[in-house]
Amino acid sequence: MAPVSLPDSSARKINVQPRYDFDLRTGKSETGLRACTYNVEVKADPEDGIDKVYVETPADGSEWRLVELRPVSEEFADPPPRHALPLLPVTAAAGSMIEEPVVPIDNPPKTLMQWAVLILNTPNPTLKVQRTREAVNLFRTGKLTSIGHKSPNAPCPPDVPPRGENFTRNTVDPGKVKNRKNRAVMLHALANIEQWAIDLAWDIIARFGPSHPNIPPAFFSDFTKMALDESKHFTLLTSRLSAISPSTPYGTMPVHASLWDSATVTSNSLRSRLAIIHLVHEARGLDVNPGTIDRFRKAGDIESVKVMEIIHADEVTHVTSGHRWFTWICEQEGNIDPILAFREEVRRGWRGDVKGPFNVEDREKAGLTKEFYEGLKGEMGFPLPDGRVPFDMKPSKGAVADITVQYESI
Ligand SMILES: [Fe+2]
Ligand SMILES: [Fe+2]
C-alpha cells in the first residue's frame, strides 16, 4: 500500500460507489474490457495520527502513476439523495414559466425509454433539468423497473428536440454585454451547449437502445449519468450567468444548434454517433476547457473557475464512456480495430481537420491515445451520400449571430 496525499482536508470521503461497470473484486466488465482494481483504505498515520489514504500498488511493473484523486461533493452525490434534489439551484430561464408538472399526471412514463423521449420533447430547459433528475433518480434507486428498449412499443425520439422561440434568437443588445468582458456571453454559450448535451445523452439512449437489444445495462447507467451531469453543468452555468449578469439570464442571447448537426449526421449508426459526438466533440471539450478556465481566472471570477473545473472533470468521464462503448460496438461488429474504425467514422462523418492543440493527458485518461486522433481529417460533404442535409438552426434574421465565442465544446 502506498500513501497518497489528499488535495485538501475536506476530502475525507472516498468514493466507494463510482459509476463502475465492472466487478470491484475481479475487474470483470460487461463490455468485455477488464478493469484493474486496487484496495483503498483510510488509516491513521502512526507518526502524526492524521488520516491518510492508502492505495494498493500494482503487483507487476513500475510503469504506473496515480492519474487522479477527486474529492466527492456531497451536493452532487451519486446517486443523488432524493431529499437533496430541491437544494440544487435551478435558475428559471428568461421568459420561461413552467406550467407542467415534473412527472406528467396523465400517462406518466413507466420505462427509461419513455422518460428519455419525454425529456427530449420538453422544450423548457428548467423542466428538462428537473425531469432529468427525476428520471435518473428513479432509475438508480430501482423505482423504474424497466428500461424498455426491448419493447416493440418503445417510443421514437424526435428528429430535433424542440426549443422555445426565445432560445433560437437573440433578444439582447450586444453592447450590453461588452462591459462584462464577455463572461456572460461565454457562460450563456456554454449553457446552450450543455442543454444540447442533455438531449444528446437522452437521444443516444432512446434512438439506439431499441436497435441494440443486446446492449448491456451498463450502457444505460453510463448515459443516464451523462444526462445528469450535463443537467448539472447547465444548472451551474445558468446560475453563474444569473449571478454575474442578472439582466441577461439564459435565453436572452443568441444560441446555435451546431451540435445537433452532428446528431443528425450520425442518427443511423451508434458507432458513428459515439465517434463523432463523444470522441470528437466531447474530446474537443477537454482540449478547450483549460483555456476557458484560464480566462475566468484572469478575470478574477473564481466561482466560474470552480464551475468549469467540475464540468471538465465530468467531461473526462463522458469521453471515457464514449471510448468504452465504441470499443464494445467494434467488438460486436466482428472484433474490428477501434482505432481504424474511429478514423474511418471521422473521415465519413466530419468535415475538415480534427483540430488541436490536443489535451493529450486528459484524452489519455479517457482512453483516447494519440493514434486515434493525430493527423485526422474529415471528408464529409453535403448533401450526405443518402441525400440528407443535416439540420441547421441558425439564429433567426435580426439576431446577433456573430458574437465571438470560441467555445464549441460540450
Ligand atoms: Fe457538459
Ligand atoms: Fe459531456
Overview of this protein structure:
- By secondary structure, the protein is mainly α.
- It folds into 2 domains: 1-72; 78-379, no CATH class.
- Helix content is 42%, strand content 5%.
- The protein contains 11 helices and 5 strands, in the order βββαααααααααβααβ.
- Strands 1-3-2 form a 3-stranded antiparallel β-sheet, with no helix packed on it.
- The longest helix has 31 residues, at 302-332.
- The protein starts with a strand and ends in a 31-residue tail after the last strand.
- Bound molecules: fe (ii) ion (2 copies).
- One fe (ii) ion binds next to helix 4, helix 5 and helix 8.
- One fe (ii) ion is lined by residues 197, 226, 230, 282, 315, 318, 410.
- Residues 147-172 are annotated as: Disordered.
- This is DUF455-domain-containing protein.
Rg, please?
Answer: 22 Å
Topology, number of strands: 5
Proportion of residues in β-strands: under 5%
Secondary structure: helix percent: 40-55%
Output the structural class: mainly alpha
Strand order of the largest sheet: 1-3-2
Number of domains: 2
Largest sheet: 3 strands, antiparallel
Kindly report how far apart the N and C termini lie.
Answer: 38 Å
Mean pLDDT: 80
What binds here, in terms of ligands, is: fe (ii) ion
Q: What is the overall shape?
A: globular
- The topology string of helices and strands comes to EEEHHHHHHHHHEHHE
- Low-pLDDT regions: 6-20, 72-76, 81-92, 170-180, 391-410
The total count of helices amounts to 11
Pfam families: DUF455
Region (Disordered): 147-172
Organism: Sphagnurus paluster
Protein name: DUF455-domain-containing protein
